[in-house]
Amino acid sequence: MSRDTRFANRVATIDRLPLARAALAAAITLAGVHKLVAPAPWDAMVVQSWADTLLPVSTRTWTLANAVGELLVGLLLFTTRYTAPLAAFVFLSLSGTLCYIALAAVTGANVGIGTELLVIIAIHDIGLAGLAARVTLDALTRDS
Fold it and tell me: What does the alpha-carbon distance between residue 108 and residue 102 come to, in Å, rounded to a whole number?
């Protein structure tokens, strides 16, 4: 057996779910921490006219509430409990965020950051949503 084949066989047997779950958990936890430490950039991503109409609280309160939720979900993802529903929640949440970003970009809504930066954020969120989907599916497959 060649060295390349042996390496490929070892890689094929690696359990990828813990690594993917840890990466997703780290990203969500760090986003929550950053929202608590420096909420202003996150506030700036809100279309204020939409927030005034739709949110029952201030933009800052919304940002901080999201931070607490992200910390909870992110930290729970570091454990092996509830991986599938938590990762599915992250996937759905990011999907909603992507819809919001697309709507803001298409309508030219007044966001506190430039459309170019929104597009960069969307690109990152697409990758993170893909990771969340993969963790969800792997966890569901493992649980069955």
Answer: 10
pLDDT attached to residue 26: 97
The pLDDT score that the predictor gives to residue 144 is 44
Cα(35)–Cα(113) distance, integer angstroms: 16
pLDDT at 143: 57
Task: Check if the beta carbon of residue 115 is closer than 8 Å to that of residue 125.
Answer: no
Burial of residue 127 (number of CB atoms within 10 Å: 0-12, 13-18, 19+)? exposed
Residue 98 to residues 19, 92, 136: CA-CA distances in angstroms?
Answer: 25, 10, 18
72 vs 93: CA distance, rounded Å: 14
Chain centre to alpha carbon of residue 16: 19
Low-confidence ranges of the chain (pLDDT < 50): 144
Q: Which amino acid is at 123?
A: I
